[in-house]
Amino acid sequence: MRRKLAAGNWKMNGTGDNLAQIAALTAAHPAPGVDILICPPATLLSRVSDAAGNAIATGGQDCHAAGSGAHTGDISAAMLKDAGATHVILGHSERREDHGENDQDVRDKANAAIDAGLTAVICVGESLAEREAANTLAIIGGQLAGSIPDGVTAQNMVIAYEPIWAIGTGKIPTLDQIGEVHDFIRTALEKRFGPGVGRSTRILYGGSVKPSNAEGIFAVSNVDGALVGGASLKAEDFGPIITALENA
Ligand code: PGA
């Protein structure tokens, strides 16, 4: 059985004021029936980790592929871990777009994260043009092959399927389209890593997940949780998403 995971990606949002959301979340979900992960901006990581206690795991939103060195502005996987993180999001489409990260970069970062003892949350997803050209599965297949390192386990890797055109737009694919991609990812993982890793790895859906659409998304086969952006910023939105996942 795969334990479900509700992951929040705060992106470049949040200051100390937002710690109140962590307090509200832990008060509302003292013994959650699913794993909860919050990935705040790096400046908040240690404070969120302290505030979150045992009920909520924390993660970074990116890391450098090197362990240390002359890389102004960057953060290593070991630094994230030192700040309390157990996870790191890698290859988010905003990183791929804003910072030109390609599959090889994501793979190198994932290796660094895993070496440091973190779980890599590796993101894949197609653009609207790619979906309209019926290239979605080919694009996802290529990103999986290129971005996931060899030798991963179901403990140190999570996959997030995030159609780029659904992120922050309020649009989501049909439930059939989500199911098609998640089934495809499951099969690709089983083929490459064998049935053990393939069947136990969690596959999250991300892109405009809200309290109003969570129940439907979580009923789709091979959806093991969500990576939530905007709706993870407030406990009053993220809380009902967690509850929907607990009830799925
Ligand atoms: P969104 O972002 O929920 O705001 O669409 C999802 C993500 O980018 O992880």
Radius of gyration: 17 Å
Shape: globular
* N-end to C-end Cα span: 13 Å
What series of H and E elements makes up the topology?
A: EHEHEHEHHEHHEHEHEH
Mean pLDDT: 97
Strand content: 15-25%
Q: Return the CATH topology.
A: TIM Barrel
What is the CATH C level class, in words?
Answer: Alpha Beta
Give a short account of the largest sheet. 8 strands, parallel, barrel
Q: Indicate the structural class.
A: alpha/beta
CATH superfamily: Aldolase class I
Q: Which cofactors or ions or other ligands sit in this model?
A: 2-phosphoglycolic acid
Q: State the CATH architecture.
A: Alpha-Beta Barrel
Which stretches are poorly predicted, pLDDT < 50 over at least 5 residues? Answer: none
| Number of domains as seen in the coordinates | 1
Question: Would you give an account of this structure?
Answer:
The chain has one domain: TIM Barrel, CATH 3.20.20. It has 10 helices and 8 strands. It has an 8-stranded parallel barrel with strand order 1-2-3-4-5-6-7-8, surrounded by 5 helices. The two termini are 13 Å apart. With 248 residues, the chain is α/β, with parallel strands linked by helices. The model has no long low-confidence stretch (mean pLDDT 97). Strand 1, helix 1 and strand 2 form a beta-alpha-beta unit. It binds 2-phosphoglycolic acid.
Please outline the helices and strands.
Blueprint: E1 5-9, H1 19-28, E2 35-39, H2 45-52, E3 57-60, H3 77-82, E4 87-90, H4 93-98, H5 103-115, E5 119-124, H6 128-132, H7 136-147, E6 157-161, H8 175-200, E7 202-206, H9 211-218, E8 225-228, H10 235-247
Parallel strand pairs: 1-2, 1-8, 2-3, 3-4, 4-5, 5-6, 6-7, 7-8
Helix pairs in contact: 1-2, 1-10, 5-7, 7-8, 9-10
The chain binds 2-phosphoglycolic acid.
2-phosphoglycolic acid (PGA) binds at residues 9, 162, 167-168, 206-209, 227-231.
